[in-house]
Specification:
Length: about 280
Amino acid sequence: MRFGPAGIPLAVEGDTLEGLEYTAKIGLRAYEVEFVRGVHMSREKALELGKRARARGVSLSCHGPYWINCAAREKSKIARSIHNIMDSARAMQAMGGGVIVIHPAFYMERDKKEVYSQVKETLNLALEKIKSEKLDKILVGLETSGKPTQFGTVEELSMLSAELPQTIPVIDFAHLHAVRNGWIKGKEQYSQIFDEIEKNLGLNYLKHFHSHYSNIEYTIKGERRHLEFSPSTGEPPFKPLAELIVERGYDGTIICETPLLDQDALRLQAIFREAGGKA
């Protein structure tokens, strides 16, 4: 398993390159570049980031801009969403390839099947562009939603990924906990998540899954904010997740999204190792 921060570690005052160097130095092997406010990275810098990551044994991913809604009513917003996906894909390809994480869509009080169909249509348009530009090292990661108003259940995303090439579900465990008002209590719920994915994508995906984890504050409306990791009282609990991954022989990446980023990523990695996992 690989663990790493979502963005530049707190101890780093410099840029993304320095963040990568520090991440590798402290013993983490994953790093998610944050493009949530837009893709503002030159191709030259992306190439250098990829070169350094490979040399240090760190896997890269990125989080695409928040301004993506693959089920928007306005054609201009659909076009903008595809534009943001493509900007992220080009940057990620320059880094050497990997997962670009996006929040797919909002229901906007519409029928879920209708939204599913529109999301699929928009993603197909984006994937056609990805193919035409030969961005063959890219995976579009569809993140599970943290609010009932957002498209992105485990079932929806794993089914969608089974239908579309170069797409995968990105499991945000905190979101899944918050969207169902504190649902995850232990291995039983984590098992249900993985079982649903395996049903649609097969066991192979769970040998290299991509995910986000943090403790989270939530209300009846879903996620409110990410919290620092607490191994004893934090929600959702991490130890049962670590144990289940080890027991089932899964593998992949867990990106830490707590406010303490790198510090909590190290804590998660330590607990995973205590459970008998290799990281």
